[in-house]
Q: What sequence folds into this?
């Protein structure tokens, strides 16, 4: 008889949310008690102090984390988040979701995630580089092409990944391109990686609109979060003929029913670093944006933004979860009871990023590189297979789409752990 554990180390609302999702899925597939906790809880975590000398000569010590949830199916994989609200519990939840995501889409990876408690907008470029390199220096014994392969996330980008790759390479004494993904092309990055997550969100949104019989050319789109994922989602959907009527970042949003000029918005963000005071439409809050009437609502920022409070007031036809964990457990139940909104769950919807990260890793290991068309063709084929598997699971067991996706991912990880057995 196995003894269930209760982890206080990661305790937080978002980690409890991820655990509730796991418990529901484990119950649905009757996962044996002997394998539940082994599949549920992270394998290991690392917390580090990161001293950085500031421009004024002072030293600030930042706190950073790396959680490796599952190493049974291959090296762990997951982004590194630089954000002022990072917690160990959040990082653990994101690592857990990454395990189910990589498993769902058939990648030979486990799940991991990293984070540093910092507002990167408050750092100079030199300070950001020092922090990035110090983080990787603290991680060198816990990461590697066959151990754990980080990638960009909120607050990080290909430049940060380049610094981290260089730091690791200097430590091991040779160029180790495959230690991180999401790098600049000049350092072994993959064609299509920058837009991969957003392109995947847009592709699946289009596929599900086709299933609903709704033409993309008549669709309106509201996107919360205009960072990498949100902006690339907007561009891909606009190219397909949709009208982007609302966008936002942490400073607030813009609503224009006639359609937002994305080129102007992107140039404004490039120069101003935020959307604040952008004159492309009427100002709205992030909370108001979620409740705007639209065809597609794409939460592409942080977790837990669709809640029991606003779920009854949503006026979209399709939710495409570009962010990880944007919908709470309570909101999920409300949306299921409503029955008038289709939802593409995060573990499927935003998996394009990790799929193309996998392609980048393969190209680095083989030193053979693909063009952008080949990358995107392979990406869309993998997304189609994952979508078909989720829909088959949903029909077979009468599950919600999220439950169908989670049960597929969790079952595959549990099967791998069961097959490997317990090390004495």
A:
């Amino acid at each position: 008889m196995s003894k269930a554990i209760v982890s206080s180390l990661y305790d937080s609302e978002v980690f409890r949310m991820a655990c509730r999702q796991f418990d529901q899925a484990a119950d649905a597939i009757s996962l044996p008690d002997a394998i539940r906790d082994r599949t549920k809880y992270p394998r290991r975590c690392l917390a580090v102090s990161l001293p950085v000398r500031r421009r004024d000569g002072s030293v600030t010590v930042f706190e950073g984390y790396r959680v490796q949830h599952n190493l049974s199916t291959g090296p762990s994989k997951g982004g590194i988040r630089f954000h002022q609200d990072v917690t160990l519990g959040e990082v653990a939840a994101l690592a857990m979701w990454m395990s189910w995501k990589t498993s769902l889409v058939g990648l030979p990876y486990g799940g991991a995630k990293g984070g540093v408690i910092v507002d990167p907008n408050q750092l100079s470029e030199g300070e950001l580089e020092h922090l990035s390199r110090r983080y990787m220096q603290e991680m060198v014994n816990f990461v590697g092409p066959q151990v754990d392969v980080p990638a960009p996330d909120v607050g990080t980008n290909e430049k940060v990944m380049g610094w981290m790759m260089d730091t690791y390479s200097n430590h091991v004494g040779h160029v180790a391109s495959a230690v991180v993904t999401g790098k600049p092309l000049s350092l072994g990055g993959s064609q299509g990686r920058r837009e991969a997550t957003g392109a995947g969100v847009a592709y699946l949104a289009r596929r599900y609109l086709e299933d609903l019989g709704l033409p993309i050319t008549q669709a309106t789109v509201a996107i919360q979060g205009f960072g990498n994922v949100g902006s690339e989602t907007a561009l891909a959907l606009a190219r397909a003929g949709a009208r982007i009527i609302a966008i936002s970042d942490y400073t607030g949003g813009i609503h224009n029913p006639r359609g937002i000029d994305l080129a102007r918005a992107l140039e404004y963000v490039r120069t101003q670093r935020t959307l604040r005071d952008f004159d492309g439409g009427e100002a709205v809050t992030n909370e108001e944006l979620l409740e705007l009437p639209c065809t597609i609502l794409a939460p592409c920022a942080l977790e837990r933004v669709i809640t029991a409070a606003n779920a009854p007031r949503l006026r979209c036809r399709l939710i495409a979860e570009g962010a990880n964990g944007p919908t709470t457990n309570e909101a999920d139940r409300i949306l299921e009871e409503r029955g008038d909104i289709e939802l593409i769950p995060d573990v499927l919807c935003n998996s394009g990023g990790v799929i193309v990260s996998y392609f980048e890793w393969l190209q680095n290991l083989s030193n053979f590189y693909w063009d952008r068309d080949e990358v995107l063709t392979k990406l869309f084929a993998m997304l189609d297979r994952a979508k078909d598997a989720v829909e088959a699971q949903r029909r077979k067991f009468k599950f919600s789409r999220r439950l169908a996706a989670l049960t597929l991912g969790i079952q595959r990880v549990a099967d791998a752990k069961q097959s490997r057995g317990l090390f004495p």
